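Example S7 (structure tokens).
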């Protein structure tokens, strides 16, 4: 589905069903160097169980037109603009990694538009190491290899190759290689420079779910504690829920798709 937002067209996968803005809606937001396809299982399930789904390609990612947004705040504005253009007055927003910061920022910026948020692989601050930033700037293939090693809990065992001829590692590596040159550095800089996490968390007025990989090396389980504490102490008095997926790395949707779906289903339906 194409969405005409001011200045550019954005693409959104609708889960295999025609989008109906009159139904309860869920917006999926991918992480750095990714696109809508990371949400295939979860978005299709919800689309066939009473929800209208927009799994977005962020500006300059996947099929969406550029230019890239260079900050988490700008990406949040783009998500809200896509909702508006699609006729969605209010939606749940699900975000992974960089997308979790975007979902959080959306909830803070437009509390009347966001019904609830699910934050997968969340952290604040979401700092990126100098080594990884340098590789993203000067040697993207090296950076993507580093990310894949750190994102998966055990690439030499399950789920690295859960069946003959199938590799979660290389599937993700190929997806990352599809994005335009420079996307990875731009996304990483946006995460690294984002300073509004605690302020956004304190402004949240809706239910919140954290989905956490027990062996996540990119955003370790404790990395979400500051956000959860800020949400819990906010004037709205929201007590965040947590779903811990043991043995799972940062690539939650591909490593443990069924467990991620179960957590989202319980939270969203």
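Recovered sequence:
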């Amino acid at each position: 589905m194409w969405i005409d937002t001011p200045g550019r067209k954005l693409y959104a996968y609708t889960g295999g069903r025609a989008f109906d803005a009159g139904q309860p809606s869920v917006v999926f937001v991918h992480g750095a160097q990714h696109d809508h396809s990371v949400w295939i299982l979860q978005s299709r399930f919800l689309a066939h169980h009473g929800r209208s789904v927009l799994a977005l390609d962020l500006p300059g990612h996947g099929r969406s037109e550029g230019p890239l947004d260079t900050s988490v705040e700008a990406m949040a504005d783009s998500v809200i603009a896509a909702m508006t253009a699609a006729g969605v007055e209010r939606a749940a927003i699900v975000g992974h990694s960089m997308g979790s910061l975007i979902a959080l920022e959306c909830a803070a910026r437009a509390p009347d538009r966001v019904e609830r948020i699910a934050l997968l692989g969340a952290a604040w601050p979401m700092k990126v190491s100098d080594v990884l930033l340098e590789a993203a700037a000067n040697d993207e293939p090296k950076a993507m290899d580093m990310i894949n090693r750190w994102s998966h809990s055990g690439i030499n065992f399950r789920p690295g190759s859960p069946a003959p001829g199938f590799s979660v590692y290389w599937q993700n590596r190929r997806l990352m290689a599809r994005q335009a040159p420079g996307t990875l550095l731009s996304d990483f800089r946006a995460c690294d420079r984002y300073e509004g996490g605690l302020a956004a968390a304190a402004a949240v007025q809706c239910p919140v779910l954290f989905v956490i990989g027990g062996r996540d090396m990119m955003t370790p389980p404790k990395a979400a504690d500051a956000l959860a504490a800020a949400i819990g102490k906010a004037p709205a008095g929201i007590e965040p829920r947590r779903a811990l997926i043991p043995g799972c790395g940062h690539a939650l949707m591909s490593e443990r798709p069924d467990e991620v779906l179960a957590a989202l289903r319980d939270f969203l339906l």
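Notes on this example. The domain at 2-126+194-268 is CATH 3.40.50.1820 (Rossmann fold).
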